[in-house]
Hints:
GO terms for molecular function: ATP binding; DNA replication origin binding; lipid binding. Keywords: ATP-binding, Cytoplasm, DNA replication, DNA-binding, Lipid-binding, Nucleotide-binding. Belongs to the DnaA family. The chain is of the alpha/beta class. The protein has 4 domains: 89 residues, 2-Layer Sandwich (GMP Synthetase, Chain A, domain 3); 175 residues, P-loop containing nucleotide triphosphate hydrolases (Rossmann fold); 74 residues, Helicase, Ruva Protein, domain 3 (Orthogonal Bundle); 91 residues, Orthogonal Bundle (Chromosomal Replication Initiator Protein Dnaa, Chain: A), CATH 1.10.1750. It is built from 23 helices and 8 strands. The chain has a 5-stranded parallel beta sheet with strand order 5-6-7-4-8, sandwiched between helices. Strands 1-2-3 form a 3-stranded mixed beta sheet, sandwiched between helices.
Amino acid sequence: MYRSEDHRTFAAPSESGVEASGEQNAAETWARVKRRLRAELGEDIFASWFGRLELDAVIDGCAYLTVPTRFLKSWIESHYTDRVLTLYRAEAKDVERVVIGVRSTVGRDAAAMRRPVEAARPSAAPGAAAAPAGAPATHEPKPAPAAHQEDRSDAADLGGAPLDPRLTFDSFIVGRSNALAHAAADRVAQAPNGQAIYNPLYLHAGVGLGKTHLLHAIGHAVRAQGRRVIYLTADRFMYGFVASLKAQTSLAFKERLRGIDLLILDDVQFIQGKQIQQEFGHTLNALIDSGRQIVVAADRPPADLESLDERVRSRLAGGLVVEVGALDEALRASILTTRIEALKAIHPTFEVSPNVISYVARAITANGRDLEGAVNRLLAHATLTGSAITLETAEAAIRDLVRNREPKRVKIEDIQKLVASRYNVSRSDILSERRTAAVVRPRQIAMYLSKVLTLRSLPEIGRRFGGRDHTTVLHAVRKIEKALGEDNALSDEVELLKRMLQE
């Protein structure tokens, strides 16, 4: 529970003067920031991208800004976030970061969170449910199972995102790289009597490798059992909490969130703000302590979520942490085949030979979304030209997906973190003087990758590995090079680490 002095901008009604003053000061500061933006970028650019950018709240040094569309959010985040922050800090030194959300989500959350409070007022008739504003008094909802009605109510009140009907366990393609994650997700979804196991279940992977698919699949399976499920992205969780503070319904928000059977939270790496992280930690503790299941996904292991509070990271790491690995060639071919067969039900003349499927599976190695894009391009070529798909036409159709991209700049720190995570040691172990076999091999692999993937000299690499001599690095590089020629399993492992670092 937060004390009132922790968020004076959202004070209780008895402090309305303080609240109004705080909001007025924040609004005046934001007006000055917008004037700076207009002067620096020019009227045309400002009107195109910033005219509808609004300030929603300032909490714990974070300015929460909103725009009306996801496109605007994505564009500003990609091109102007740093500039906005620089100009904001010129006007308000206490603002350390900015977060941009979609305004429609905030509005729904704020309006929805008023309903539980209004329903609980003494003036309401005993046993009567509060009807949504604007609903006809004589309208009676269609009968539905109580659990599903309550589930939809929870989703509306908390701004929960809908589950994608396509993303189920039946449509998930299992391969060597994701078998463990699939098995863990299925076990959680089928737990008897709603018993929480592997709590929390934490899935992490890069973009397009299937972690979100598994989250939705779990949600569908649990909801089919009549249990209450909420699926939230980090963005929706943050803005739901901010909106509840502004509407002075934060207690109702917390109680609704903690009253569900399964909380699914995606992209947890984006959760920011001290108060929001504290509330997220309190929610984790409350749900776990009451035996409710939590499933979380992120793009990295809990230990690497450096922006998250240490206690939250520890709580996330206390459950089952599973990585969804990179798609191997056999799995990529299976995904392509399954997708093509599904499209043939709609386009009976769409035929793709095994040779073409094999070529595409070899050429596109990044993620499942690129594979989906490749199939769509092949379908477009076949339906628009009426010609058969050959290796030559396939190569032309997917050229943009396999074009030579500028290699990602890999940092030695990233290599050390990834290798440490992969081999279940700590980064401090790799930098230490320990010489046990469990530490020496990962350290040598990390040195080898640093030599291969960066432009650093051997002496520089040695300094970055605990101040070691360059001859130590050279010995490690030569030893791993020799081992790679003799050990196919190690060769595959190191190649996978290279791909993960370069993606």
